[in-house]
Amino acid sequence: MVETLPLRAALVGNPNCGKTSLFNQLTGSRQKVANYAGVTVERKEGRLTTPAGRAVRLLDLPGAYSLEATSPDEAVTRDVCAGRYRGEAAPELLICVLDATNLRLHLRFGLEVCRLGRPTIIVLNMLDAAEKEGLKIDLPRLAAELGTPVVGVVAIRKNGAADLLALLDNPPVMPPVLREADGGDIHATVRRLLTECVTRPAVASEALEDRLDRWVLHPVWGLVILLALMFVMFQAVFSWAQPPMDAIESGMTAFGELIRSLLPAGLIRSLLVDGILAGAGTVVVFLPQILILFLWILVLEESGYLPRAAFLLDRVMASAGLSGRSFIPLLSSFACAVPGIMATRTIQNPRDRLVTILIAPLMTCSARLPVYALLISAFIPKRLVGGVFNQQGLVLFGLYMVGIGSGLAVAWAMKRREVTTEHPLLMELPAYRLPSLRDLVLGLWQRAVIFLSRVGTIIVTLSVLLWALSSFPAPPAGATGAPIDYSLAGRLGHLMLPLFAPIGFTWQICVALIPGLAAREVAVSALATVYAVGGSETDAASQLTPILSSQWSLATALSLLAWYVYAPQCFATLAVIRRETGGWKVVAQTAGYLFGLAYLASFLTWRIALALGWGPS
Amino acid sequence: MIEALIVGLLVVACGLYWLGRVAPSATRGLWRGFGRTLQVIHAPSSLQMAVAGRATAAPQGGCGGCKGCDKNGGCH
Q1: In chain B, what are the domain boundaries?
Q2: Span A228-284, pLDDT tens digits
Q3: A318 and A269, same structural domain?
Q4: Given A152, A181, A199, which residue is the final one in a domain?
């Protein structure tokens, strides 16, 4: 029989047990998954239809170690399960996902869920990994003990959840009937279930994972490995990306030439070449570098290395007054501060959470990469240091380190008078996994789509507006200066100059800072548009780098780099801070201190560079 | 003249796009006004409906080109 109303079901379980993978498998979604705890911090909703045609509305809830919530993300799970979540009816069915390779930990939560008194299905995920480890799990016996259906799935494998789908055709309608034989002691029940339902092989030798962990988690060698990985990552961003970047640049130049040859000189040609192509084309060139950076991040995420890095850096974080729990949110901020700030929901201590939110924008997000790469390409010679290291990669690595160091320094300053109350870091280390090629390709594809849609919307529209501001009004008859000096943008840039001249900025940079408030990479397209309109006959999409290196001093470039390490030029970040903190106060504090730091850092950089003789000649 | 008109329309469209992002309530008012104008001039009903949809659209979540947001505006 086909039901008319969809069944409301919710996926619950410990962090990193594969709920989101199962959610993606069942609903066809592409929510982010990674091999560490705390990726999902709020409820996600999807729909699916069972083989018999039954509609199911499925919720994916944040992972929780217990229904006694200790952090905001766990509170979401607790409230939804209890039917207390605002605007969300209690689910009719709970699908409790347990990691089959780690039942000692996960069964405890499973028992808590069974005791809620709601219809429940227990799903043992990663059955393939359990079998590889030699574990034999008696599913019928476990189902009998828990008094509710138990099915096995492999959430990352195609059709790996077929048994669960079949069960959803006729889901249980009665709550589990647990066999209570241990006087209510949940730990005793877990021990009994493991003894009765799970057969383990005798451990013959140290597993590969343990041997790897002896190196990766070593207090000295572990840090060396971490630093080496990050170092190679930034080298790769510059070394590997060059051929595709050159190809895209040549394509843009050829396209510009084509437009020039097809259209007569006039407003439309100027808009297309000097506005859209110069603006958007300059940013598109950086796509390969962004994808290489994300390839590294995805590989590290999938492999299970990141939580180990968090464990290693717990002591460093503690020296700044934070716990290792802040590591994952800060690490997410290297992709984009928005998910990073949302991931702070896993932090229990409100003060620690606030400090992590405040310093998250200091982690170098991918939007800064085009700005850094443009200035580094223009001012840092491409040569090998010590015969091995790409000098441009070294400077990029240095900029990332300055961001991290500044974040820790700010956290230390904010927390130096406080007694740390956050619990010591207790983190489940996931099994190492070989990253799946399909997931990597999909992840990179999603990143490319996000980047290109930003170019196609934010950057193209701002380039058009900036082109108009840079082109109108036209210079009066008999004017001798450059036409752009008489435009609105030119006048605005000159108006702002007294404020930014002390830090070495030109009026063109001042103009680029305004649209750059929307998103950092817009500054690159804005500079290209301003110089294209100003230079008129040049193709700024391909020539911005030589234009900058000939018109700016090294001191100006370094000052602008220092500005971009700190300046919170991203509307989305400020908006998510407002949402996560529930008011404008923290937004004002964040913007205030970051703009202040940006100005101070640029001023110091400019003055030091002048003293070293790197100023305008 | 036609060239200036095309460029002007493009610039206005980009301006409206940003107005919609920065101040969505202001754009909804504009769309409502445009919708009324379309009614007065008896524009095709499909166009009127499309504009009416714009005027009543709820504010969207998400940042930039990201479509990973749910109805509460959450994202990954």
Answers
A1: 2-56
A2: 998 888 888 888 888 999 999 899 889 989 998 999 989 999 999 989 998 898 899
A3: yes
A4: A199
d(CA A537, CA A547): 13
Interface of B with A in 5-64 (CB under 8 A): 6-7, 10-11, 14-15, 17-18, 63-64
B6–A579 CB contact, under 8 Å: no
Which chain B residue has the Cα nearest residue A467? B11
Find chain A residues with C-beta within 8 A of B71's C-beta.
Answer: 45
Q: Which two tokens stand for residue B36?
A: 């009324």
**Could you count the other beta carbons within 10 Å of the beta carbon of residue A50?**
20
For residue A586, give both structure tokens. 């923290």
Residue type, A111: L
Residue of B nearest to A456 (CA): B65
- Tally of structural domains, chain A: 2
Residue A372 forms part of a structural domain: yes
Q: Are residues A189 and A241 in the same domain?
A: no
CB contact under 8 A, A32 and B76: yes
- Asked if residue A279 and residue A182 are part of one domain, the reply reads no
Task: Closest CB to B75: pick one of A342, A458, A462.
Answer: A342
CB contact under 8 A, B64 and A457: yes
* Domain that residue A521 falls in: 225-424+437-611
Helix, coil or strand: residue A434: coil
Contacts of A290 in chain B (CB under 8 A): none
Least Cα distance to A308 among A215, A406, A206, A411 occurs for: A215
Highest mean pLDDT: which range of A145-149, A303-307, A330-334: A145-149
Tell me the β-bridge partners of A12. A96
Q: How far apart are CA A238 and CA A140, in angstroms?
A: 55
The answer to whether residues A231 and A287 belong to one domain is yes
Cβ separation A450–B17 shorter than 8 A: no
Closest CA in chain A for residue B66: A450
Q: What pLDDT score was predicted for residue B63? A: 47
Q: b vs e for A167-176, b when ≥16 Cβ sit within 10 Å of the residue's Cβ?
A: bbbebbeebb
**Residue A90: inside a domain:** yes
List of E strands, B1-76: none
A326: DSSP letter: G
Provide the pLDDT for residue A425: 65
Alpha helix positions (H), A208-323: 208-216, 221-239, 242-262, 267-270, 278-284, 287-303, 306-312, 314-319
Nearest-neighbour CA in chain A from B4: distance (Å): 7
- Checking if the pLDDT of A182 tops 80, the result is no
Tell me the HSE value of B60 on the side-chain side, using a 13 A CA sphere: 14
The residue ranking higher by pLDDT, A12 or A242, is A12
Count CB neighbours of A513 within 10 A: 21
Residue A542 inside a domain? The answer is yes
Which residue of B lies nearest to A329 if distances are taken between CA atoms?
Answer: B76
Which residues of A lie inside 8 Å of B (Cβ-Cβ)?
31-32, 39-45, 266-268, 271, 336, 338-339, 342, 449-454, 456-458, 460-462, 464-465, 468, 519, 572, 575-576, 579
Measured between alpha carbons, how far is A412 from A160 in angstroms, rounded to an integer? 47
Mutate to test the interface with A, among B63, B70, B72 (most CBs of A within 10 A): B63
